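We modelled the chain as a single entity of 114 amino acids. Its sequence is:
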Amino acid sequence: MFADRHLTRMQAIMRDVCADFEAELVEFNGENNHAHLLVNFPPKVAVTRLVNSLKGVSSRRLRQEFPDLTRHYYRTNKLWSGSYLAGSIDGAPLNVLKQHIEQQNRSGQGTARA
């Protein structure tokens, strides 16, 4: 469903949302049906609020800017599922996580750096 042009715009939108939360989008990549984000955010930010905003704002803007996406979600009128995976990387090597995200296939194309 997501082409490279969708993912490129999604990255910009999500970077803006992160900035609103005083967070940093460290790494971004996506595939045709999901996205991978590495976000550094302050402890005062609840991960659920951040994720809900990332998904909500990106859904609204992408659907407005890319009406062609409607053919993929017309039955549910939802761009994102209600689920997400979030984890803490305290102590994990940041370069390993960044490399993992960089290596994800981006609709058969290259990767995008945040």
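As a brief sanity check on the tokenised model: Residues 108-114 have pLDDT under 50 and may be disordered. The helical segments are 4-20, 47-65, 70-73, 94-102.
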